[in-house]
Amino acid sequence: MTTPVVDIWGPTAPEPRSVSPAPEPHDEWELPGGTAWVFYSPLNRRQLIRPVILSDGFSGGPSSLDQLWAGLEENGDYRFVSELHATGRDVIILGYDNRAASITANADIVIDCIRRTLAERVGRSKLVVGGFSMGGLVTRYALAKMEQDPALPDHETSLYLSYDTPHQGAWLPVSLQAFTHFAADNWGEVPLVGEKLRQFSALLNSPAARQMARWHLEKASGTVKEDRERIEFLRALEELGGWPRSVRKIGVANGVETGNGNGIKPDMTAVRADGTTLVDTWLKTQATGDQEVARLQKKGGEALLVRTSGLPDIDGAPGGLFTAPSEQGDPGSFGLVALLSRLLGNTVDPDVITTSCFIPSISALAAGDISDPKALYQPITPDNSELDAFLAAGRNEGHTTMTEELGAWIVNEVAAG
């Protein structure tokens, strides 16, 4: 698999991804709470003439230009920045000091970046603004806010773009959330691995995760629900009109539009571990109806059974895959549980289902409710989508994987604008 633009686990991963250094940007803007790295098109002689702002998405810790550049340019398939440069577009890559902060907080950084861009711009060319993964939501909110708040300037943007963005929410397997919190509670103080467990638990309980996840679990023994922070964010977004109105809205999905799933079947054992610290602990893929999705047991302790009710068969849904496995050792979703279980001294059954759907296609294309099991697996048509134009991938692939198929379509849309 190619390098994703947004590495979900990021530096939190037990085996973090290694990437080559990015080139020095032509300019670097320190913003309150973030950084903008500016790469001028060679056609513009180091002047900001036709700006494109690309926002980072959800992960742990601060944004890494090296990681973003690897996903955008050194992914082995399509050099997105270079292709934008060839059309005369200057690229501004926007990162955040805290990628897990609330969407509304990081949207203020987008607004600051747009202000700076307009101040630095030579001429009157309209902006292109958008982002990858949650970055598409952050920029969507920022543009809508700038249109509705009279104290803010005109964003002077003609095109908004999103790349595998959870417009209708993301899927974080409930069993994965439960295991992460369970492990942090029981082994959070163990040297080395304990720090990682606490970081994962905190990441899944961060403001951004609560706002993004359609179903959230605060603690292993908690109740699965749509988090209050998500409800409040959606209300705030709706008060701003839901979308920026004075722009053309385009988006792409790393999943297919045909309704064909990724092959992961519901109610299957995804990972099972037993050994030094765990006893007959297992996680299952999500199924509809009432289901036991996990059995978690510390050696010498009581078993904790995690149940869900009314959720769809979503692990196998068409969409961008949750950190798809790669040569760099990305653990995936259930694969992360397998890796952490081994680090805690246990034996893991070899037939692990490592990954799952993360951003359903209907979410990335703003084309339906991901809690509707029928809508998840139905073909997507232009009439379904709230976007003005979209493209779905030819296969279900890793979340924010940059491909020629999707990247070239966006570049063509930008150039046509």
Explain this structure to me?
This protein has 417 residues and is α/β, with parallel strands linked by helices. The protein has twelve helices and 15 strands. Helix 5 crosses helix 6. It is globular, with a radius of gyration of 21 Å. The two termini are 31 Å apart. The model has no long low-confidence stretch (mean pLDDT 95).
Strand content: 15-25%
The counted number of beta strands is 15
Structural class by SSE content: alpha/beta
Q: What's the shape? A: globular
Low-pLDDT runs: none
Helix content: 25-40%
Span of the ends, CA to CA? 31 Å
Largest sheet: 8 strands, mixed
- Summed over residues and divided by their number, the pLDDT gives a mean of 95
Helix/strand order: EEEHHEHEHEHHHHEEEEEEHEEHHEH
Major beta sheet, strand line-up: 1-2-4-3-5-6-7-15
Number of helices: 12
Cα radius of gyration in angstroms: 21 Å
Which secondary structure elements does this structure contain, and how are they paired or packed?
Blueprint: E1 27-31, E2 34-39, E3 51-55, H1 65-72, H2 80-86, E4 90-96, H3 103-120, E5 127-132, H4 134-148, E6 157-163, H5 174-187, H6 193-204, H7 207-212, H8 228-239, E7 248-253, E8 269-275, E9 281-284, E10 291-296, E11 304-308, E12 319-321, H9 334-343, E13 346-348, E14 357-360, H10 361-364, H11 373-376, E15 389-392, H12 404-416
Parallel strand pairs: 3-4, 3-5, 5-6, 6-7, 7-15
Antiparallel strand pairs: 1-2, 2-4, 8-9, 8-13, 9-10, 10-11, 12-14
Helix pairs in contact: 3-4, 5-6
